[in-house]
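Weekly puzzle thread! Below is a chain. First person to post its structure in token form gets bragging rights.
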Amino acid sequence: MIKVQDLVKKYGATVAVDRLSFSVERGELFGLLGPNGAGKTTTISVLSTLLPATAGSASVAGFDVGNDPDQVRRRIGVVPQELAVYEDLSATENLRFWGKLYGLDRTQLNSRVEEMLEAVDLAGHARQRVSSFSGGMKRRLNLACGLMHRPEVLFLDEPTVGIDAQARNNILSLIRRLNEGGLTILYTTHYLEEAEQLCHRIGVIDHGELASLGNKEDLIRQIGDEDSVRFELSGDHFRLLEALAPGWPDVQGVTWNRGLAQIRCHDGAKVIPLLQEWLSDQDLPLEHLEVERPNLETLYLNLTGRAHRE
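Winning reply:
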């Protein structure tokens, strides 16, 4: 449904998107995950025909975004990061405005407005001015505006920025329902947990380049399948552990740094009972135990050099 090949977008000497390639299948919810400034919005702007590409190619629903922009626009809905709603108008008036822009006739408009107000749980606020809405309500209306013409593909650019946890969960649930109904969605976010919850596949993007691509399990496998068991231990006792632990099942290695011992292993749950038994034999407590499994946050940090909330 979406094909991107060696896409480049430059602003003068600045490269915002650098030889980006990926594809999105029909009915897929595909995530572009990356820190602010990674090139996510620029990518969506090119795919939605708002910006011309500098090089490379991209198509949506079988139409080239550069050669057939009108055909692409008829088939896509775009929900930008910046709210595209008019605060002096009511929810109904906003939806009617966007529906008319999409070419809906009066009968289509009336039925679709009612349908979308129900879908985003704003039917009880239909005639209320948007200026009185909460941030979450505005975000839901913003989403409804992009769906008025029943697009084949929906571009969502950071749709939960600036709203509270409850409002975010409501929007994520709505997006999940839309995708379950068959809608193809390209979703950009810098919230790692959103990508984990929603997306079938995730492309990690940074500095305009695709750093990694796959489903959650594929991405985690890229950083290995080792658990890390960490706990406090004196240097003297560590030397005893260092001689013993490599003989335990699946242990890959042991290290010690400033009073903190670490056992690398395939399954921390199997190692902990052995560790507890050994510590008991040494008459030592098990203090400050941590077990870290490979996860997307570890991968994200390794790829971008930044914590996912920066």
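Puzzle host: Confirmed. Bonus trivia for everyone else. Residues 101 and 149 are 9 Å apart (CA to CA).
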